[in-house]
Structure formats: C-alpha cells, structure tokens
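Moderator note: this is an archived Q&A kept for reference. The question asked for a predicted structure of one protein chain; the sequence and the answer are reproduced below.
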Amino acid sequence: MGLRKFKPVTPGTRFRVGASFTEITATKPEKSLVVSSKKSGGRNNTGKMTMRYMGGGHKKSYRLIDFKREKFDIPATVATVEYDPNRTARIALLHYADGEKRYIIAPEGLQVGQKVVSGDTATPEVGNTLKLANIPLGSIVHNVEIHPGRGAQLARSAGAYAQLAARDGKYATLKMPSGETRLILTACLATIGAVSNSDHANEVLGKAGRKRWLGRRPRTRPVAMNPVDHPMGGGEGRSSGGQPRSRNGMYSKGFKTRSLKKYSNRFIIEKRKK
C-alpha cells in the first residue's frame, strides 16, 4: 500500500497524489455480496433538499460487510483484497471452511491465503476477532463494538485503530482514534490490527472534477451569501460574518453541542483532544 505521484501532463494531474492500488488482487466484487445502491441527492422522501452540496457522482454498488464476525471458531481463508467505493479502507473476501463467503474490513498487513478466525479460541493475530477480555493489553485493535452483538462501530475508516490500555472488572479502557479514552465492556468484540490504506489521508484529488465524481457539489461560503440565506451573509465588500455559526444560528468553532446528560458520558475517562 502506497501513494502514486502523477506527472503534470494536465493541470489536474500536476498536484495529484493518488493510491497505488498495489494491494488490490481482484477487479470485480463477489456477486452474491453486492446489492444496488440508490443515491438521494440530499433529498428526503418528499423531494425537499435537506442536505446541501450532495448530488451527482459515479454509480456505485454496495458491498455487504460483515461487522459482527459471529461465525465463531470457523476458520476462513483470505481470497482477495479489493477496492470498495463506499469506504476509505480496503475490504477482504473471506472463504469460510463451511463454504460461506463474507467481506470484512481489511486490516493492515492482511495477505491473500492467510487464515483468520473469530471467537474465544482465536489467537491475537492480525485479522482475528476476539473479545476485549481475551486481547493482550497494549494491543492495537479496530472494528470495535460498543454493545455486545451489535457489530463493530468504532475505528473502521482507513488507518484507524484503538489501543487497549487497561482492564478493570467487566470494563476495558480503550484509547480511541480521536484521542478520547473511554470504557467499553470486555464482552465486546474487536479485531486485531489497524485498518488498511493508512495513506488515504495523504491523497490529493488534484482537481474539482474528482470531487464531483465522489458525489460532492461545490460548497458556498456563508460570508458570500445574502442575509436571507445565512446568519453570516450580507455586508459590503469583504466584511466578515461576525461570530461563526451554522445556517440555523448554532455557534461553531468550539461550541460544545454534546448533551450534558448523555448516557455515555460516564464511560468517557478523558475527552478527545481539541
């Protein structure tokens, strides 16, 4: 996995830095694990635009990803490592011993032909899924559950990982990708290793058109709008918009929006870095 710098043959490739895709071993997805995906264009069920700056983009098919890893003690072989247009990480196709096929988020270093397994009998090796109670302290993990059996919800994007810092009773202490330190039940599952494609953060699109291919339309600066369109609009010339805020008046740039009574506050030991 690495990056590829393009020669400045056109203005769009002059500063473009893209993925090399050297780790990809298959160009077509597993047909049984692909479903159609419909774009909303930012519109709700009545056709009203509720999310701005969405629309267009290349057509995609959705790959069904196994975030639960509940096939315990059944070994699987990594058949392919593939590109997924719906996420920043790479995905891996597993062929289980009982004949079933499933996609998982590919961790860094996972190779084709490698064996992976989930369950209490699994060893803490890259790609294996265990309960936090059975993972050695200090280990790097991803695809972490918040509630047992619900499926992985934390550390799923490219290059993300959490570190298992401590265990006390039925809770484990994890340091999250955001820098937050929080408690999670030791009965929750996590996968060993960091998520693949860690160089994604260093990619440079190179031109506005590539942003449009991803389904993102141009974003208008609030200070360029009229007063009727945004609280920061209006004024003569390059006058600033005053206190930074959202379109509905909610202050931004440091304003705390998290509820003081949120149930999960008691599980957070140290808040994320500003």
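Archived answer notes: Residues 4 and 20 are 5 Å apart (CA to CA).
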